[in-house]
């Protein structure tokens, strides 16, 4: 799993590449724990190359969601593959988190 961060003026784009499992969840958690994360209006998560997500990977997003919301930082997922989206949907996370089809919609969200 590779996590690439691309900051812009008001948002942080996180590109996820590979399988987000227990071992790689640590990398993602490190990104979410960086102090400057809360200085952005949005954290956009590009799931184009995310091929798998485990409960540990989901746990990273869930554990940081409230902190982001408390600091008015919107978490938006986009370009999610169907099998990854199904995991979010089965667990009801699609109603807790913003998931949109494209990057343009993520920026506009």
UniProtKB/TrEMBL annotation:
This is Anti-sigma factor antagonist. Residues 1-109 form the STAS domain. InterPro entries: Anti-sigma_ant (IPR003658), STAS_dom (IPR002645), STAS_dom_sf (IPR036513). Pfam families: STAS. Belongs to the anti-sigma-factor antagonist family. It comes from the Bacteria. GO terms for molecular function: anti-sigma factor antagonist activity. Signal peptide: none annotated.
